[in-house]
Amino acid sequence: MAKITLDNLAHSYMPNPKSEDDFALKELNHDWTDGEAYALLGASGCGKSTLLNIISGLLIPSQGRVLFDGQDVTHAPTADRNIAQVFQFPVVYDTMTVEANLAFPLKNRRMDTAEITRRVQKVAAMIGMEDQLNRKARGLTADAKQKISLGRGMVREDVNALLFDEPLTVIDPHMKWELRTQLKKLHADFGHTMIYVTHDQTEALTFADKVVVMHDGRVVQIGTPQELFERPAHTFVGYFIGSPGMNLLDAKIDGRQAQVAGATIDLGRDYDAKGRTQIGVRPEFITLHSGGEGIPARVTRVEDVGRHKIVRLDAGGTPVSAIAGEGEEIPTSIDRIRFAEGGVNIYADDWRVAPAGEAAA
């Protein structure tokens, strides 16, 4: 296990980058705490795999350093970093049996035969392949081969870090849940530093202690699932986390008051917001009303998704989503929305503005 430090790290695939836009990974400084489980979350092309490959040694950054427990490994080959990496598509030895594939990393380290057998049996049980240990990998399905790749990554107990690059893409939905559960148990049992790349927010939020949200080559927030949900640091985080994502409404902010869609609302606290200002509100924090105070809005449709209803509205030309209970009636007379106390975030030029008196994050 190791504390991983990213020092002034950035990367461009261009030989002579001229501006920040030329960098696939924009400047980053961060310590990855020894023994924690992280998820790198973001849309395709945001820089997740670039960052993971720099940490693993498959890619040398064009700027900055990577340190494991204070030791500079920026130019060290992957083999010298003592990490295990599982890729998006399965990497197995087709001519070997399942057992031989799982044992391969341990045999390379000349481990005791009895210990190899113990670990292989344990990992085979975790990935549900105890009854296929003697089968050749060549005839297995893609998801079975990926389970072997996952098992080979998990079979070593002495690694500095376990790195997963969208490893469940080819796994069927039920097995995805099972394997995520096993990965969390592995982390609890052995305390490996784990970094898990995904574009799936459910995978990220259920796997990680902390989620690293990336957008356009930049880390826009690192936080717990609760922090990402309640206080998104960037509008992209609000949009990307949640289903539906956060509502964003253009607003004019003046201290503790906001002008939104022709209505004035009390924010409860003072804000010093300049630039392009918006209010961000999760659908869970919006209530529907007929008449009285609030922001004018009309219902455009209602979607019943089983556990609850998603109410789609139009507020002065801005689409808004609200969550209603499964059994809740949605009257046709609804013409106002209100925001729950504490459920509002203020943004200026896409970045969250803290209210007066809030402690720094």
TrEMBL record:
CDD domains: ABC_Carb_Solutes_like (cd03259). One of its GO terms (cellular component) is ATP-binding cassette (ABC) transporter complex, substrate-binding subunit-containing. The keyword Cell membrane applies. Pfam families: ABC_tran (PF00005). GO terms for molecular function: ABC-type ferric iron transporter activity; ATP binding; ATP hydrolysis activity. InterPro entries: AAA+_ATPase, ABC_transporter-like_ATP-bd, ABC_transpr_FbpC, ABC_transpr_MalK/UgpC-like, Mo/tungstate-bd_C_term_dom, NA-bd_OB-fold, P-loop_NTPase. Gene3D superfamilies: 2.40.50.100, Nucleic acid-binding proteins, P-loop containing nucleotide triphosphate hydrolases. SMART domains: AAA (SM00382). Residues 4-241 form the ABC transporter domain. Keywords: ATP-binding, Cell membrane, Membrane, Nucleotide-binding, Transport. Belongs to the ABC transporter superfamily. This is Carbohydrate ABC transporter ATP-binding protein, CUT1 family.
